[in-house]
Sequence to fold (569 residues):
Amino acid sequence: MIDLKANPFFLDEEKENWVTKTLASLSEEEKIGQMFCPIGGNTTEDYLQGFLEEFKPGAMLYRPMPAANVQRTHRFIQAHSRVPMLFGANLESGGNGICADGTYFARPMGVAATDDPVNAYRLGAIAGKEASAVGCNWAFAPICDLDLNFRNPITNVRTFGSDQERIIRFVKEQLKGLKDNGVAAAVKHFPGDGVDERDQHLVATVNSLSVEEYDRTYGEIWQEVVNAGTLSVMVGHILQPAYSRYFNPELKDEEILPATLSKELLQGLLRGKLGFNGMIVTDATPMVGFTASMKRSEAIPAAIAAGCDMILFNKDIREDYRFVKEALADGSLTMERVDEAVTRILAMKAAMGLPEQQTAGTIVPDEEALAVVGCKEHRAWTKACADQAVTLVKDTQKLLPISPEKYKRIRLYLLEDRIGGGFKDGDGAIGKVKEKLEKEGFEVTLFDYTKPDFHEMFEGGVEDIKSKFDLAVYVACLDTASNQSVRRIDWVHLMAADAPWFLKDVPALFISVANPYHLMDVPMARTFINAYTPSEEVIGQVVEKIMGRSAFQGVNPVDPFCGVWGAEF
Fold:
């Protein structure tokens, strides 16, 4: 029996009765539908009507669209759903996780760099207000992973860093900001990412800490998350061998499974030792970390049998539904377990007040609510956070502040993901750097990746470089993204033409607006700034600080020197 009056549901008798009656009224197909959260795509009403009638999902997620489009789509779906829906979004960095025109507040590591929990609350509040305005009620956030391995390509700036005490403080404030604005959290990624250096989109990763090490780190964080009344937890495709063996000493190495498929981690650690009574949702099941662990026909029902209540995303949605039906028919998945999963899903919806909102017609607000999306107050908070976050890691050459009088001619290098000779994000935030520096009176020449200067690469020497510019400014925007094996600087392969070979003769300033670990590849850079978030507000604050008009306030949430000898010099 699930105690629906206990943490995190705290249901009164009326809400508990709604859960019981609703569960009893659902057909087998409707129960299966409640356990799935597919990605939405087509937003035409005819398509949505047919989709809802066929699959009857318990939740959905839409990628960011203009706020008005998101609100309209959510309103139609809620109006045509018998059971109120959870609408999820990756609200990790602000309202931009659901609204294309929403506020990009800051990457979590940028928030951590301010060392001010107020900004963590604002992160949650902005995301919550803007999500609620469009009828989104479920945040796939906060991220409570520890960024212990600087080589990890997917945690990185998505985390609050490597200090567990700061992570606990900031996660709890972000949770409050979301809850105060009507959005439930799915805290991620249990049992904890950031130890491995790989991405679970591409492989099942491993949290290799011992039981004792885990308890002192991730265990403390997750216990705080559970105690805070979190309604749902997102489970990653991450192995934790020590705890798997702790709860099942007979396990062979090849039998250890990622948490999404592990009874030991879900029932033993999360539900048992940590005492989590809420709803468990998988991370995205199309990830290779899930799909390579066992046949999909077995994995989908096995995840539910192991303790996951909801399946996030599909490969072929009809196949995934069929796999659950077949597992129920052959007994590998029991209806008792399905009823338990659906009970927790319904209890979460009841705890959020969704049935009452659906009845009152307020589950998606009116169009007037859209005024909060990207509003003036949120922009002001964003600028203030950027001001506090930008971190001067080192300036051992005493370069700063710069001015046109000292360094009139600047060679600007924009280090981004280059595709087909151009830039993926050339018109984004760091594309504004040239314009901002020119407004300060500098003469700025952009290093042209499309037309390499072969004379400079093969024949040019020190005098040639000195004749062209007085200061090199590198701005790196290698942001975290799924399905990446590494997040490292990839210099031009021909003679590393954009690498700072000249910095003993011409000074260089290195600025990262994403990955904070680039000193691994440029330890020789003597002036280095971390800014964590590739937004216009951050770029503006960086320019203010390098010009000497604003003090650097940021603290390092991680070790930016990566343990590399000489990187601090």
In short: The CA atoms of residues 146 and 198 lie 14 Å apart. Residues 419-427 have pLDDT under 50 and may be disordered. The two ends are 61 Å apart (CA to CA).
